From TrEMBL:
Origin organism lineage: unclassified sequences, metagenomes, organismal metagenomes
Regions that span the bilayer: none
Protein name per the record: Methyltransferase type 12 domain-containing protein
Stretches assigned to the Methyltransferase type domain: 56-129
Length: 209
């Protein structure tokens, strides 16, 4: 089995142990989870197309992002995607008004384009991957998804400027990330570390946004 699959197997174990909750997707704090949804969707504020937009929630987990979108009256056409069939089944049981894709992006293609692609928590944990393996996983996914977005992508990673480090988390230097984005995706990006968590969110835009 490809080693990166250990990441989603970890989340499936969290779901099995904690059910459909913030702990079920391994966020330790509910309020921080909600804060992340808002920060992720702030990509809309930086775009000329922030209404009637299509959004792909990549690594959708239990569909908490969609709950947030509905509760806060965002005008978005939402699609969920997860590599885990168990998470996809959880979403389908809760919602019958959205598309749910069960896809391994490193093995399959996405056949549609979306205005925005959101990756919340997909890259914060590396589990038993080493730094090189996690970097390859991270960069390969972003390069593949870039052709499926019309406007931009938002994602979060752990900031390396911390009081202590957990060896199961993925910390990424701003300089290394900025160089990768410029050379492979776009030089139009924003780093946001203004929301009080030990991570930062990145908004990357197509040149024409």
């Amino acid at each position: 089995m490809d080693k990166y699959k250990n990441i989603y197997k970890h989340y499936e174990k969290c779901l099995e142990e904690n059910g459909d909750s913030h702990l079920g997707v391994d966020w330790p704090n509910y309020d921080d989870m909600i804060r992340r949804y808002k920060i992720m969707l702030n990509i809309l504020k930086y775009s000329n197309k922030n209404q009637n937009s299509s959004i792909l929630d990549f690594g959708a987990g239990c569909g908490g992002m969609y709950d947030f979108i509905k509760s806060n009256n965002y005008n978005l056409n939402y699609t969920a995607l997860d590599i885990s069939q168990k998470f996809c089944n959880t979403i389908k049981k809760k919602f019958n008004d959205i598309d749910v894709l069960n896809i391994d992006i490193l093995k399959q293609e996405i056949n549609s384009n979306y205005d925005f692609i959101i990756l919340n928590g997909v890259f914060t944990e590396k589990r038993d991957l080493n730094d090189t393996e996690m970097w390859d996983f991270f960069t390969n996914i972003l390069k593949k998804l870039w052709k499926n977005t019309n406007i931009g992508i938002s994602f979060n990673v752990m900031t390396p400027i911390v009081d202590w480090k957990d060896d199961k988390l993925f910390y990424l230097s701003y300089d290394i990330l900025g160089k990768f984005l410029k050379e492979n995706l776009s030089r139009n990006y924003i780093f946001n570390q203004s929301y009080g968590l030990w991570e930062y969110t990145v908004y990357v835009f197509k040149d024409s946004h």
